[in-house]
Specification:
The structure is a single chain. The chain is of the alpha+beta class and 615 residues long. It has 4 domains: 41-169, de novo design (two linked rop proteins), CATH 1.20.1440; 276-381, PAS domain (Beta-Lactamase), CATH 3.30.450.20; 388-455, Orthogonal Bundle (Helix Hairpins); 464-611, Heat Shock Protein 90. Helices cover 60% and strands 14% of the residues. The chain has helices at residues 4-37, 41-69, 78-100, 108-131, 138-221, 236-274, 294-300, 312-316, 320-325, 383-417, 427-458, 470-480, 482-487, 507-524, 555-559, 579-589, and strands spanning 279-284, 289-292, 343-347, 350-364, 370-381, 465-468, 491-496, 503-506, 530-538, 541-548, 593-598, 604-611. The chain has a 5-stranded antiparallel sheet. Helix 1 packs antiparallel against helix 5 (138-221), helix 2 (41-69) runs antiparallel to helix 5 and helix 14 (507-524) runs antiparallel to helix 16.
Length: 615
């Protein structure tokens, strides 16, 4: 059985052989061109340069002698002329010597030797003329002219011999290059044809079955199981085709077997959702409504055909209740973490309370990423819990109010006992009176907190807004806690920015917030610590900051610090954990803000901001 690996190896090996042949032929042909031009082209060019320089030098010697003989150069002395002639002679001999050591052509050595002999004869004539002090002599001139012409003829012959050699070698190289071009064109054409044959025939044998397999798999992903691969080869593709056909047949059988079961389970789930008392709305990952139960239809007054497979925000635009149910889903992150207060709906002429709950449906895939499948939006009926909560709030308000009357009597009795007109008290009795007064004060504070809490629960917070200077709030609050500050020897530092604008606030409620936060700072501070109060303007608000050096608050505790009946930290449990919760509600009722910045071991900073009085 011929494997796919063998087929691929055959194709790649064939292409490798073609490339190898082209490379070898290229090397051979290039070597032929090099052989045809190898030798002395470079040396020929040097010989040409030497002959041109010698021609220039001998012409210089001859011209200076003629000028001396004819007394043409009046400005030159006899000595200067001899110096120039000697320079030309030296240069000529140098170039002639180089030429004699650069013989490249047949006959060039004989011509160089003849030139050397003629130049020596020419040089002898020059010396005789110089000895005669440049006196004109016809025989000397004739001899000089004869050797001059013979030397020039020798130089020209050497020049011509090298130029012809250069032209001949260029012609041979051009001829060789033309032949090699023809050979390479033929070989390249054959190689291209072979390569094209492999490119167009070989990959198709491998790619075509894979393409067919891909198309069949896509069809199966669309639940079309009537697919079959018609590949009868004996290689791996044939084995894959046979295994694929068996898999498709089993998938088809499995689909037919389980389809009824799946449909039954879907109907059962739909029946459960439809019969839930809570309103349920299910959206897919694209936020289209895919399930809406009867309770939701009853509360919203919608019809199922007008809602199913519709984009939820489009339906919400026409129905307020749907908009409330999906408000968390439509938040920027779609996480459903936005808090929504319980809503009140009239059902059968009776007010009922519902809470909104959203569930994000996602499944973690094999790569540990969450794949979003949709959202479940629910309205849970919490009427009975709301009624119990209301009853609890009313009970707290009633009990707290009723406790104020006997507490007032206790305080009056304590005041009378402390009156010296009724008799002097010994130290033990006075300690008892002080202890009762402290407990009475603590009980009074708890009762006031419970009353404030009941107002918040019932939504009946009564505010008396007025324009007040920020430093007034600080003065009232610090004065009320001066005794606690002095008992723990705490140094209070106050930094109030100058020319602060008035703030719009309920003085009583704002002082409550200030005192509550400052009192907590005193509790958590050690004896001799420093508490800092900063008051400054921040945009359109005045910001109050109370900073202590206590143990600090962890991130986990900060998240639940302002919850009702919640106490954090390591201090001894005192009060009911309502102070900060009530302070938060009071600030929100006055359009203010309250937050905390803290780190364990580095103290805490509580900041509350109040809007300035608008001009």
């Amino acid at each position: 059985m011929k494997k796919i690996k063998s087929k691929i190896f055959t194709g790649v090996a064939s292409l490798f052989i073609v490339i190898l042949i082209l490379s070898i032929l290229g090397i051979v042909f290039i070597n032929q061109i090099a052989q045809s031009s190898r030798g002395s082209i470079k040396d020929n060019y040097r010989s040409v340069d030497y002959t041109m320089l010698m021609q220039k030098d001998i012409d210089g010697i001859y011209e200076h002698l003629i000028q001396k003989l004819n007394n043409i150069s009046k400005s030159d002395t006899s000595r200067d002329g001899d110096v120039r002639i000697n320079i030309f002679i030296s240069d000529f001999e140098k170039n002639l010597n180089l030429e004699q050591h650069n013989i490249t052509e047949i006959g060039e050595a004989e011509l160089a030797a003849e030139l050397n002999q003629n130049f020596k004869s020419f040089l002898s004539s020059v010396i005789r003329i110089q000895k005669d002090n440049y006196t004109p002599n016809s025989s000397n001139l004739t001899e000089l002219k004869t050797y001059y012409d013979q030397s020039k003829e020798n130089i020209f012959d050497i020049y011509k011999l090298n130029i012809n050699a250069i032209l001949r070698r260029n012609s041979e190289a051009e001829s060789t290059a033309e032949n090699i071009t023809i050979y390479m064109a033929v070989v390249a054409s054959i190689s291209v044809l072979l390569t094209l044959f492999f490119v167009f025939s070989f990959p198709g044998k491998i790619v075509s079955p894979i393409t067919e397999l891909t198309n069949k798999i896509k069809a199966i992903s669309d639940r079309d199981y009537d697919q079959k691969l018609n590949i009868s080869s004996n290689d791996e593709m044939g084995e894959l085709a046979r295994a694929f056909n068996v898999m498709v047949q089993r998938l088809k059988e499995y689909e037919e077997t389980n389809l009824d079961k799946i449909l039954f389970e879907k109907k059962r789930m739909d029946a459960i959702v439809q019969n839930l008392q809570d309103a349920v709305l299910i959206l897919d990952e694209n936020k289209k409504i895919i399930v809406i139960n009867n309770s939701t239809l009853k509360l919203t007054g919608l019809k199922e055909e007008d809602v199913l497979n519709k984009y939820a925000p489009d339906v919400a635009a026409r129905n307020d209740l749907i908009r409330t149910m999906i408000s968390n889903v439509m938040s920027p992150d779609g996480s459903g973490r936005q808090d929504i207060q319980p809503i009140k709906i009239a059902v059968n002429a009776k007010e009922e309370y519902f809470s909104v709950e959203n569930i994000v449906v996602d499944i973690k895939s094999s790569n540990k990423k969450n794949n979003l499948f949709g959202y479940i939006c629910m309205l849970k009926n919490i009427t009975r819990f709301q009624e119990r909560d209301t009853a609890k709030t009313n009970l707290i308000a009633t009990v707290s109010h009723e406790l104020k009357t006997p507490l007032s009597s206790i305080n009056l009795s304590l005041k009378l006992l402390d009156d010296k007109r009724l008799g002097e008290l010994n130290s033990e009795q006075r300690e008892v009176i002080n202890s009762l007064r402290q407990q009475s004060t603590r009980l009074s504070r708890v009762i006031n907190e419970l009353l404030d809490f009941s107002q918040i629960e019932t939504g009946n917070i009564r505010l008396k807004f007025s324009s007040v200077k920020p430093d007034v709030i600080v003065d009232i609050g610090t004065t009320a806690l001066m005794m606690q500050l002095s008992e723990k020897h705490i140094d209070l530092q106050t930094n109030i920015e100058e020319n602060l604008p008035n703030i719009k606030a309920d003085v009583e409620k704002l002082v409550f917030v200030f005192i509550n936060i400052l009192n907590n700072a005193i509790k958590y501070s050690k004896s001799g610590d420093i508490i800092t109060i900063d008051v400054k303007k921040a945009d359109s608000e005045v910001e109050f900051s109370i900073i202590d050096n206590g143990p600090g608050i962890s991130i986990e505790d900060q998240e639940r610090l302002f919850q009702r009946f919640m106490q954090v930290g390591t201090k001894t449990k005192q009060g009911w954990g309502l102070g900060l919760a009530i302070s938060k509600e009071f600030m929100q009722a006055q359009d203010g803000k309250l937050r905390v910045e803290s780190e364990v071991g580095k103290g805490s900073k509580f900041i509350f901001a109040v809007p300035c009085v608008s001009d």
